[in-house]
Design a protein that fits this description.
Elements lengths: L1 E12 L2 E13 L3 E5 L6 H9 L4 E8 L6 E4 L11 H11 L4 H14 L15 H14 L4 E5 L7 H17 L2 E5 L3 H7 L2 E6 L2 E6 L1 H8 L6 H12 L1
Parallel strand pairs: 3-7, 3-8, 5-6, 6-7
Antiparallel strand pairs: 1-2, 1-4, 8-9
Helix pairs in contact: 2-4, 7-8
């Protein structure tokens, strides 16, 4: 069952209304789709279009239902200067109407998972890049979303945190959540993603599972990395 359908004719900004064009794909319940492409390919713009953050969008973006809950985990963490880690979690719980008992139970579990219990009353602005990324992951998983949109999650995370992140992601997928993940970590994406959406120059150039991507490239048995570079060579 599709949990999200994206059909974008064009989308962009006031001074560039067609930053991306002709991008279409769907996300199923429990599916992890990798959004990949070189720098400037349109990945972040596509994410903003899905989230309704662009001033110019010509197309249709259909979540499963009107009450579909999104969790967006950005590449660059964003915090309120005066709020502690725990106060950020309380704010998220209030915004998404999470019951107090559920919030306390889940919040404690997530702090323990990412080993940030001792930092709960500290300001995230003083944390390292990796710790800040963990806070964004905690807030995202606290929400128990229907759709997770994750932008470059592996930057700054140590191997143990990456393992914890992937375990939680797997749990959410088993619950039925869909995941759209933008990443340059192609080796990891090949291992964990069910399907891929490849963008270049603001346009969709390939989509499907790895077998389908290999067929497009005419590279049977090739890695995602090799397919990615082959497609870019063809387009040059």
């Amino acid at each position: 069952m599709d949990i999200l359908q994206v059909q974008i004719k064009s989308a962009g900004y006031v001074n560039n209304k067609k930053a991306i064009e002709n991008i279409g794909f769907s996300l199923k319940k429990g599916e992890l789709t990798g959004l990949i492409g070189p720098n400037g390919a349109g990945k972040s713009t596509t994410i903003k279009a899905i989230l309704g953050l662009l001033p110019e969008v010509d197309g249709e973006i259909h979540p499963k239902g009107q009450n579909t809950r999104y969790a967006y985990i950005p590449e660059q963490p964003v915090f309120y200067d005066e709020l502690t880690l725990w106060e950020h979690l309380e704010l998220a719980a209030a915004a998404y109407d999470i019951g107090r008992r559920d919030f306390l139970d889940e919040g404690e579990k997530l702090l323990e998972t990412f080993r940030l219990q001792k930092e709960r009353h500290h300001l995230p602005g003083s944390f390292s890049k990796g710790m800040q990324q963990k806070v964004m992951l905690i807030i995202g998983f606290l929400i128990k979303a229907d759709i997770y949109i994750v932008d470059e999650p592996f930057i700054g995370l140590d191997p143990r945190a990456i393992r914890d992140f992937l375990n939680l992601l797997d749990t959410e997928r088993k619950r039925g959540a869909g995941v759209l993940m933008s990443t340059h970590a192609l080796d990891t994406a090949e291992k964990i993603c069910d399907s891929f959406v490849l963008l270049a120059d603001g346009k969709l150039v390939a989509r499907g599972n790895l077998a389908q991507i290999r067929e497009v490239c005419r590279l049977p048995g090739a890695s995602l990395f090799d397919c990615f570079n082959k497609i870019l060579e063809i387009l040059e």
